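User: Okay, second chain of the day. Same drill as before: sequence in, structure tokens out.
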Amino acid sequence: MNPVVTGVGLALPGVGSAGDLLGAVSEDRAAVDPAARIGKKGLRYKDRATQLALCCADEALRDAGLLGEDGLTVPGETIAVLVASNYGNADTVCSVVELIAADGSTRGISPMDTPNASSNVIASTLAIKHGLRGPNLMICNGPTSGLDAVRWADALITSGRAGRALVLGVEPDNEVVRNLTGADRVIDGAAAVLVEHPDLARARGAEPRAVVGLSVRSTSVQACLDSLGGAGPDSAPGAWFTPGESGGEALGDLLPHVPRYDLCDVWGEPSSVLGVLQCVGAVGWYAGGGTGPVYALAGRTGDDATAGLALLAPGAAR
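Assistant: Same drill. Structure tokens below.
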């Protein structure tokens, strides 16, 4: 049985719900203040990406009904954590490297910075904060990372390794990330979905927001659409979230009559956040009355892979 999405979380400027992703977002929006969202406790000495992830994860767990005033409402070992981030702690790593190069030793490194230099700091922090004791993965796989994380969550649940998975994508906006990406605008935010085995969701009375369907990978958007079944007129999706035009592949002639959403155009360079953000957008699509499969595609065309994921409306057959 296909896993279902039972909760979502967002930590983006000017966005309060999944449905907000489908409309115009004001350019005049303040950056997310994690302390204002979840309080200052536990944020001290954490880098920007980890702080954004903490407030986003809190929202997703609460939205799914898995986090209450007294903590988790289900056993922590049933929840896996999968975090996608390509540049999350790059600012800390670069700062530590610069200090070592300048000083010739590690003496100048603050002990508060050392944990933040670990590649899996975001995923491990979320697990420690909420007592999530299922499998814990940090995915750094380029622009497809977000959808790759959803795919691995699907694999963990269908194989019986975990009953639920918190899937989160996060990237900070700072000088280091802009230098690495060459972008003048980076998303500075996080998105999350709570994916769950349908039997567990049904047992606790949780409402499925979407069903996780087929996952594919290819070297072009067209090939992904063909594999997902969207090439023919009778199998076109209800909507699709594009990977943007940055890969160089012209998208204008693909599925011309299907509503499409380009979140790259709205948020700037999203990197690993894109795939998870698209899944949250799909939940917003269904909540607003949308029907039919929603296709989410992320990546770069050409030599690098493009990942595709079909999200089906609750109750739809694969």
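The radius of gyration is 19 Å.

User: Thanks, on to the next one.
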